[in-house]
Amino acid sequence: MKEITDKMNKKAKEAKMNVKELQARMDQILGAPPVVEGPDAKRYSQRGYKPKAAELIPKRFKMPNIPKYDETIDPQEHITAYTMAVKGNDLKLNEIESVLIKKLGETLAKGALTWYSLLPEHYVDSFAMLTDMFVKAYAGARKVRMRKEGIFCISQEGTELLRDFVTRFQEERMLLPAVPNEWVAKAFTVGLNPLSSDASWKLKKNLLEFEASTWEDVHNRYTSKIRVEDEQVNIPTSSIGRSQGQLNFHRRHSRHRFEPYPSGPRTDRRQERFRSESPESNSEQEHLVFHILWQLPLLLLPSCHPNLAYAAGGKWNILMSNIGISAMHMQLLNNDRVIMYDRTDFGASNISLPNGKCRNNPNDLALKVDCTAHSVEYDVSTNSIRPLMVQTDVCCSSGSATSDGTLVQTGGFNDGKHMMRVFKPCNTCDWQEMGAGLIQSRWYSTNHLLPDRRQIIIGGRDVFNYEFYPKTASTNNVFSLPFLQQTNDPRQENNIYPFVFDLSVDGNLFIFANDRAILFDYMTYLIVKTYPQIPGGDPRNYPSTGSAVLLPLKNLRAQMLQAEVLVCGGAPRGSYLRATRGEFVGELNTCGRITITDPNPQWTMETMPLARTMGDMVILPNGNVMIVNGAAAGTAGWQIARNPVLSPVIYRPDNPSGSRFEVQNPNAIPRMYHSTTVLLRDGRVLVGGSNPNELYNFTGVLFPTDLSLEAFSPSYLDLKSANSQPHIISPASHSKIRYGQPVNIQFTVSGLLNTDLVKVTMVAPGFNTHSNTMNQRMLVLSSGKVRRIGRFTYQTNSIFPNSGKLAPPGYYMLFVIHQDIPSEGIWVKIQ
C-alpha cells in the first residue's frame, strides 16, 4: 500500500513540473490562455465529515429518487426535499443523521458537487452544520446569478439593427456602475432581440449555445455576424470601426436614452427586403419553421422591462450578525432607536444584562434566574445595540407608540398576560413594568392608537372582547366583540392578531379576522357595516398568517375620503392541522383589495408573483408597499413551515392592475416564523428575527434561531438616483405642528427637478410582530405648487391633516418625494 502511495505522489510531482514547464512556453505566445492544472486526486479522496458524525449506512437503506441540485433552484428547497425523502425510509433515529450527511453528495451536480467534494477533511460534525454551509454558499450564488441576468435593462428594440444596438449598449452601460466583465456579456445576451434581424437571431443563438465570459468575446462574435445585416441594409462591412458621425446614425439626446429607439429609413429598407422574399422552396419553409420554433423559448426569458414582475432591484446588507436576541417584536421610536424583544422563556440569550444585573422570576418556564437580556435597543445612527431588561414574559404581545413617543406594550405569555410595560425614548431608559394593567389576559392581540390618544386592545387567544388603555371610570371594563368568536376556527383559530385600521372619516374601525371584515363603532359597541367575504374563503390571520396594510390616504381635504385596504397571502383553510401532521400545503398567492369607504364595497383580487405566508407588509415613503419574509408552504407555528421565500416584492398601488408587483433581489437568510421588519427614516427597511423553535436553537433543526439584523435598500437608494433625491432643509426635525396647519417645506435637489412629480408624505411608525404592523399608516399631504427659491432650493406649502381621525396625534416621519425617490425623513409631531 505504501509503494502505491509513493508512486502516486511521484507522478503528481512530475505532473506539476510538466505544468510549470508548459506554462513557461505558453507565456511566450502572445494571447495564449493559461494552462489549467488537473485536479489533485488526493484532494477528492478525503472525507469532509468527522467519522463520529456519520456511522455506517444500514444495508436496507435505498437512496430516494430526487432531482439533483444544479444551482437553478432554492438550495433550502433542495435540502428540505432531500431531508423529507430520507426520513421517509425505515430508519432508526440515530441512523438518519449519518445517512443525511453521507448521501447529500449523491443529490448534487455541477459546481455544487465540486463544492461538496472539496470540503476540508473531517470538517463537518453534523448535518445541521453541513446544510448551513450549503445554503449560505448557494443562496448567495443564486442571488449573484439573478443579479447577473438583471444588472442592465438595455434591450434591443424590435426594429433596431444589431449594429445600432451594440453601439447603444456600450454607451448606456458606461452610465451604470462598473460590474465584472462576465456580467456585461450576460446582460448583452439577455438584451438581444432575435426578432429584430437575422444577425441578431444568429448571434443570440450562438451566445446561448456557447456562453461568452467577456465582452471582447461577445464583440468578436458580433463582427462575424454583422455581415449578414450589412448585406440586408447595404452598409459596407468595412465601416465596422467607424464613428457614429461617419455612419450618420440617428443619435438620441441623453435624456431620451431609455426611450424606445426610433425607426427610420433603414427599417423601411429591411421591411421591403422581407416583403419581397417568399419561402417558396421546402428548404426555406423548413428554415422558417425552425426559426419560429427556436425563438419560442426566447419569449419566456426574463425581460428587462421595468413594469414586469421580475425586474429585480434593491440591495441587502448585514448590519449585525448577532444582536443577542431574535427580533420577534419591533418598534421604531422618534429618536431613531428600534426597540426589539423576543420572550423570556427561550432560555439564556446571547447578550448579558449590564452591570451584573439578573432577572429573578420564580414563574419563568425556562430559567428562574436569568442574567441575559431578552430585549435590546438598536441605535440606527451608530449601528450598535444596548441590552434592556424585561421582567415578565412578553412573548407574542402587542404594542403602540403613544402620542408623546412612549412605547406602550401590552400582554404576553405566562406571567405576562395581564402586564403592561412602557419604554420612554432616552439614552439610558429601560423597560418599566406597570403591573397588571389589563383586565383580560392578552396573548396574540392587536393594539390601535385612537384619535383621543387612548389605545384599544382587541382580541387575543381565546379572547373575544376588547379594552382600552389608559382606562377611565366608564371604560374600566372589557367589552364583548362576538365577531371574534364567529371567526374562530376550532383547533385552528385563524382569527388572532386581527388586522385593525382606523376608517379615518368617522373614526370607526375596520377589523379583519379570518376571511371577513366589519366596520365597528367602538364607542357604541355596534357593527356599522359587514363587508363581503374575501373571495376564495381562505383564512388570512394567524396561524394562516397573511398580512394587511391600509393603502396611502390621499386628497385629505376632499369632502369624501377614499380609504383602501390590501390583504395579501396566507394559507388555505386546514393548512395548520395538516402542517402539524407533517403535510405542508402551498401558500396563497392572492391579494384582496377593497375600498372600505364605498357604499357597496367589493373585493378585487390580484395575483402575487410569489405565494407567501408570514410575510410582512411595509409602506415605503413613496407610497409603494414592500412584502418581505415568510414561507411558501405550511403555516406559522413551531417548525411547521417550509420553503423560505427569500425575494421581497414591491407592490405599486397606483399602477394599472396586472403591472403592480415587482420581485426584488433575494435575501440569503431565511426569515420564517417570528421575523420582523420596520421602515427606517433613511428609507431603508430593517429586517430581523426568525425563530421557529421553542428555545434558542442553533443546530440540529431545519431553520435555526437567527440573531442577525439586516437592511434592505430599495432601488430608490441606488447611486444613480442621487441627483434626483430631495434633501429637506425646513422645517427642523421634531417640529411640532398643529392639525390643519399650512407649513412651508423647503428642500434641495442637485439635479433637474420635475415640479409635477413632487409630493409630501408622512408615515406613522408601526409596531411589528407576527406579520401584523399595528398603527402603520401613510398620508399624502395636500400641497401647493413647487417654486424655486434658490439655485438648487425649492419650496412647497403643505397642509397637515385637520383631525385626529385622519392622523392620530403623535410622531410621524415626513418625506419629500421626487420622481418616486424619497428624501431622508424628518420627525414631526402632530398635535
Topology of this protein?
Blueprint: H1 2-26, H2 41-45, H3 75-87, H4 93-103, H5 110-117, H6 127-150, H7 162-173, H8 181-191, H9 198-209, H10 215-233, H11 244-247, H12 265-276, H13 282-295, E1 315-320, E2 329-332, E3 337-341, E4 359-360, E5 369-370, E6 375-379, E7 384-388, E8 398-401, E9 407-410, E10 420-423, E11 432-433, E12 446-449, E13 455-458, E14 465-469, E15 479-480, H14 482-486, E16 499-502, E17 509-513, E18 516-521, E19 526-530, E20 547-550, E21 564-568, H15 575-580, E22 590-595, E23 604-607, E24 616-619, E25 625-628, E26 631-634, E27 641-644, E28 649-651, E29 661-663, E30 675-679, E31 685-689, E32 709-713, E33 727-730, E34 735-737, E35 742-748, E36 758-764, E37 767-769, E38 772-774, E39 777-780, E40 782-783, E41 787-788, E42 793-799, E43 810-818, E44 821-822, E45 826-830
Parallel strand pairs: 34-45
Antiparallel strand pairs: 1-32, 2-3, 2-37, 3-6, 4-5, 6-7, 8-9, 9-10, 10-11, 12-13, 13-14, 14-15, 16-17, 17-18, 18-19, 20-21, 21-22, 22-23, 24-25, 25-28, 26-27, 28-29, 30-31, 31-32, 33-35, 35-42, 36-39, 36-43, 37-38, 40-42, 41-42, 43-44, 43-45
Helix pairs in contact: 6-8, 9-10
Could you describe the 3D structure shown?
The chain is of the alpha+beta class. Helices cover 22% and strands 23% of the residues. The strands form 11 sheets. A 6-stranded antiparallel sheet has the order 7-6-3-2-37-38, with no helix packed on it. Strands 34, 36, 39, 43, 44 and 45 form a 6-stranded mixed sheet that branches. Strands 33, 35, 40, 41 and 42 form a 5-stranded antiparallel sheet that branches. The radius of gyration is 31 Å and the shape is globular. About 11% of the residues have low confidence.
